[in-house]
């Protein structure tokens, strides 16, 4: 078991340890211009496949897919040829040969599936240092988990099917499937694990997930059953192949559990006239994020298990003590949330009393995150194109605010030409632009930053009569919900020192627990059952995380609490400061300042023509040999169209280089 663990899981843990050293030495907060010309970065941002079941696939992702396919085909071909050669040398009856061949092929399917399972758990460790090391945000890594999930479950299903056919030929199907061996494979545990995996697999298929999201979400909690019974099925030394990846996932999951226990104060919860819900959460000033971050939100009045991802719509430059998100009403969860906020707002307006301004316990929210890009991708390009569809404008509002504030304050900021292409169905959605904190742009900023916002209203052919006042988004007054705390800083992307200590202490604690169990339990009581040894290995991993790792998390929590006390935030003081800031800004505003609404050009009854827009923008940016960053957030069809145009533009000799990147979830 130790040898297998060192060979397969040891390198993963070693790379994770070195990743913390690298992140300490080379923090990703600085703007990296040199990175644009590197071959690896260009391969990440060059779309190779656009139309297909996998969606938009970059060159690096395509190489990874090819390597996996080659590995699977080569491994299984080699194993089948080797098994046939082995059986042909033995003088066995034809029926026995068939049974043995099926058993050997099934064994190889299972071993290859375990290897793939190493990579299955790495992408879903949201705050994983490995994802931070290669700067893959969780919304991108989720795609890899989906792909690997289909591959792994297909291999495990073939593994089980081969044995079912083999046992049927022997006439001992039920007897073999219910067998639980002390030495060797425990078949019944494997059946239970496979059934749990099949339930997760079937409900995660896109048609099922899209129509029955809650069914998909709840059945995916069976991953605990899947892993535990897999360990009981194969024992300790076989499970050691994928134990390292599972350990990193357990580390992340335990830390997320600690962070999600905090009930977060909601500074403001309001419904905009266009039907969008805006939530503003309290956060400690030490919690860092960037304009491409996202968070997972749980509202306990709606569900204790459901966590939904939302892009942050505020910039870190907007304020140290808050973070906001915009939520479009699309399903039961979001509709119920909007109804709760609307009811409280109506009660507040009817009562019209000061005592009802704080609504305690009506919305009990918890937060996980923030997660996202390790480095501010949007700050790397002098020429930047933002393509959004509907509520997909949300992360770009944070980007616009971030860029404007940075230019105003003279902070590092590469963008000088920014084009926003925004498609909406109705004119009322255009009012979301007012959610940007930086609504007025001074003349000094206008001299340094050329901002062009092109809005396309697809389902209206003419502007409405009230188009002149549509930008005046008079949202209802927000409600304040005091739950007792700001967002917790216990997140893998938070304090690097404490995150590294948590990883190191948990790893050493797990190794120490395993050594002690071997010396004082396994050898003393002569434990030899495979399933028992596998269970002990899993329990040692959990003990190392919960006990010494939990102690580090507790110290981390106390450190964050003490830091917050040193920089205590009072809501009334903040409101007064904000009011004074607003008054001063109004009194000393630049007479020549331009508003974001004035920079917006609206077209009706049409969609953006990406070829013409991209070509014109490239000419304005300097023509040939210009690097242009393209960020898209919206439906898969919009992403495919933008990726297709980027690929077409990049294949032209001597033209500008368009770097494609998407920022959306497909959950």
Automatic annotation (TrEMBL):
Transmembrane segments: 6-27, 39-56, 62-81, 101-124, 144-170, 182-202, 222-251, 497-521, 533-558
Protein location: Membrane
UniProt GO BP: monoatomic ion transport
Membrane topology: Multi-pass membrane protein
Catalyses which reaction(s): 2 a Fe(II)-siderophore + NAD(+) + H(+) = 2 a Fe(III)-siderophore + NADH
Family annotation (Pfam families): FAD_binding_8, Ferric_reduct, NAD_binding_6
InterPro entries attached to this UniProt entry: FAD-bd_8, FAD-bd_FR_type, Fe3_Rdtase_TM_dom, Fe_red_NAD-bd_6, FNR_nucleotide-bd, RBOH/FRE, Riboflavin_synthase-like_b-brl
MF terms (GO), sorted A to Z: ferric-chelate reductase (NADH) activity; metal ion binding
Annotated family: Belongs to the ferric reductase (FRE) family.
The protein's name: ferric-chelate reductase (NADH)
